[in-house]
Specification:
Strand content: over 45%
CATH topology of the largest domain: Methylamine Dehydrogenase, Chain H
CATH architecture of the largest domain: 7 Propeller
Number of strands: 40
Largest sheet: 6 strands, mixed
Structural class: mainly beta
CATH superfamily of the largest domain: YVTN repeat-like/Quinoprotein amine dehydrogenase
Distance between the termini: 29 Å
Number of helices: 0
């Protein structure tokens, strides 16, 4: 007889299912199959070229997704149902941003880059030869008041007059990342330093050295996260200390980080998208693949528009609706979640805190984000113990997911025999 010591060993009914889809997994769908686009002359164009960056503009509450790619500049105002080609066809664009009624894009021709501007929502573009930045730039962003560009050698460049003039800002030399987050600017360098400005780029604070060359930056309350070719680093103490958070990241090269509520999504070069979570002021350790419908594609950038996530790949844009809350749990975290033994051989014993008569789902997820075993249980108040048979699961690294009350908790473990 099973003791009321809150032990649930009904996992004799645990379902081995390969490959079922996880409830908390993102369900990605392509929104522009074969890049079927509508150009200004309503001539259908088919483009299959890598995407560099994406941007979401907001005009009078209406959001538009912009895509800067190897073969042009495109936009959609209806979540990808129809696309407009708004750039010079066959020309590479590196980035696009908005300040008021003006749009700015970086156009690349050969090894040279040019900042161009549109004041009619991208219908026409102008390039002022007397207002160009003296070195190649890779990204351009705006906080709504000023426009900032990222130079590859000397540092940053700032314009306060809609790109008519640019002033050199001697900070973040060898700039590799530039983000406008709220009204603040964040810049990262190839030697791992992160800089922050809260006064439109007039002054900058060194937030410290992260773990590697910075490829992207994201912020959630007191947590500053930096992606790099070596994974994800974060600081919770204003840069006094930085820590690596790479548990579960099979592909270390991170291209973008997006925060949605308490969820953190990281895109990678060659292994798709991963999800982790923030609890309080701490980013927690375990990452879980979220690649259903996406696979192990190279994702160059991600953005959030109209409560949907968009991922740009080598030839398409994918979209997914984030749902629920995901928390990856370390020892000593607010939710007690333990797994023994680790490595597991034939059975993994999971213990977690729960409330009386709560429906919970316990799942084992492989590195591709597929559920290989799952079952539903009803928890009791206090500590619940679940015995998960793993004898029929192949050796490897897996993640145990506990989903209840709209929140998913995780613990990474290994099966080895």
């Amino acid at each position: 007889m099973i003791s009321r010591l809150h032990t649930i060993s009904v996992f004799m009914l645990f379902v081995i299912a390969m490959p079922l889809l996880a409830q908390q997994q993102l369900q990605w769908q392509p929104i522009n199959t074969a890049w079927s686009l509508r150009d200004p002359y309503n001539i259908t164009t088919r483009v299959t070229a890598p995407i560099n960056r994406m941007y979401v503009s907001n005009t009078n509450g209406n959001q538009t997704l912009w895509v800067a790619g190897k073969s042009g500049l495109y936009r959609t105002a209806n979540n990808g149902f129809a696309w407009d080609s708004v750039g010079k066809s066959g020309t590479e664009y590196l980035a696009v941003t908005q300040r008021g009624n003006s749009y700015f894009a970086i156009m690349k021709i050969g090894e040279s880059t040019y900042v161009i501007r549109s004041t009619d929502n991208g219908v026409t573009w102008e390039m002022n030869p007397n207002a160009q930045i003296s070195e190649a730039v890779t990204n351009i962003v705006s906080n709504g008041r000023v426009v900032m560009a990222c130079g590859v050698n000397n540092g940053l460049y700032k314009s306060t007059d809609d790109g008519n003039t640019w002033r050199f800002v001697d900070v973040a030399r060898y700039c590799t990342a530039l983000e406008a987050i709220g009204t603040s600017f964040y810049a990262g360098t190839n030697d791992g330093f992160v800089f922050r400005s809260t006064d439109d780029g007039a002054t900058w604070t060194n937030v410290g050295c992260s773990c590697n060359a910075v490829t992207c930056i994201a912020v959630k309350d007191n947590v500053v996260m930096a992606g790099s070719p070596g994974g994800v680093c974060a600081t919770t103490d204003n840069g006094a200390t930085w820590k690596s958070y790479n548990n579960g990241l099979d592909a270390q090269y991170i291209t973008s980080i997006i925060v949605v509520g308490n969820n953190v999504y990281a895109s990678s070069a060659g292994r798709g998208v991963y999800r982790s979570g923030i609890l309080g002021n701490s980013i927690l350790a375990t990452w879980v693949p979220n690649n259903i419908g996406l696979g192990n594609l190279m994702v160059s950038d991600m953005v959030l528009m109209n409560n949907r996530l968009y991922a740009g790949t080598q030839n398409q844009v994918y979209a997914a609706n984030p749902e629920g809350t995901f928390v990856s749990v370390e020892d000593g975290a607010e939710v007690a979640l333990a797994l023994t033994p680790n490595p597991a051989t034939f059975q993994a014993n999971v213990s977690f805190t729960g409330t009386a008569s709560t429906n919970a789902t316990v799942s084992v997820v492989d590195v591709l984000g597929r559920i290989v075993a799952t079952n539903s249980v009803v928890t009791t108040d206090g500590v619940n113990n679940v015995a998960v048979p793993v004898a029929q699961i192949e050796n490897g690294t897996y993640t145990m997911l506990i989903s209840m009350n709209g929140v998913t908790y995780s613990r990474q473990f290994v099966i080895a025999r």
